[in-house]
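Justification of computing resources. Each target in the renewal requires a structure prediction run like the one illustrated here; the chain below, 144 residues long, is used simply to show the kind of job we budget for.
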Amino acid sequence: MRTDKRVAAGFIVLGLWFGGCSSDKAKNHAKESAARYWQDKAYPGKASDVQVIEAEQIDDGQFRVRGIVDGETRVGVFSPKSETFSEGYYSLAAERNKKIAEMEQELKYWKEKADALDKENYKMKVLLNLQKPGAASSGSDAKN
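Resulting structure tokens:
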């Protein structure tokens, strides 16, 4: 009888251990899904701005995932059944403002570059007109 109880206890411990591993896998999967979502959706190409902090299991086998995206805390829900991550509604004002500021800087750069090229083009036209033989006198000769 004692060995039967020990074997049964061993199976229970193994079951709990493997069960714990599967929940860890599910938590990691939830964290990975959240990280991909935030990287792709909110900040494309800026993986260093995303830090997933924790994932905790809530009702219906879903996981609530918390993370920090560019200094702001985000919370979303991962559903292992449908393999989807949903953050719900959140304001994109900060992202829009950041993108607008980046675009304004880029616009300023290209305007300055275009102005510099226009000045260079004007200088070249003046030099070309000065180097043409008889360019200044041909205009006055044509009137006579």
